[in-house]
Amino acid sequence: MSTEANNDSFIANLLATIKEIQGELNELKIMKRSIGRKSTKRKTVRRTVKRKPARKVKRKPARKVKRKPARRTKAKRKTSMRR
User: Fold this and answer.
1) What span, in angstroms and rounded, lies between the C-alpha atoms of 1 and 3?
2) What is the CA radius of gyration of the chain?
3) What is the pLDDT of residue 17?
4) What letter does residue 1 receive in the DSSP assignment?
5) How many Cβ atoms are within 10 Å of 83's Cβ, its own excluded?
6) Alpha-carbon distance 76 to 74, whole Å?
7) pLDDT value at position 72?
8) How many CB atoms lie within 10 A of CB 1?
9) Residue 66 in 3-state DSSP?
């Protein structure tokens, strides 16, 4: 019976110390929030990053392809020769 009472008191003490530590932790968190707070008067403006414009590449004009004249057919040659 004494071991159960001893065990129960140990558990009670353990829970009490855990609650104390949790309370201290909460206090520290509150202190941290108050230290790190920024002023709410002015909001920070997001600044866009200026990008460098792309380089303009000068393109060479397309070469003109010279086409060969159409071949004359034999029939046309014969008629043109007679005249």
Assistant:
1) 5
2) 47
3) 97
4) -
5) 4
6) 5
7) 74
8) 5
9) coil
Query: Residue 82 is inside which H or E element, if any?
Result: helix 74-82
Residue 81, helix vs strand vs coil: helix
Q: Please count the other Cβ atoms lying within 10 Å of the Cβ belonging to residue 18.
A: 10
Report the distance separating Cα 10 and Cα 6, nearest Å: 6
Tens digits of residue pLDDT in 25-66: 999 999 888 887 666 667 777 778 888 888 888 888 888 888
What is the secondary structure of 17-49 as a DSSP string? HHHHHHHHHHHHHHHHHHHHPPPSSSPPPPPPP
Kindly report the pTM of this predicted structure.
0.39
Amino acid of residue 38: K
Which pair of tokens denotes residue 71? 């071949």
Q: How far apart are the first and last CA of the chain?
A: 142
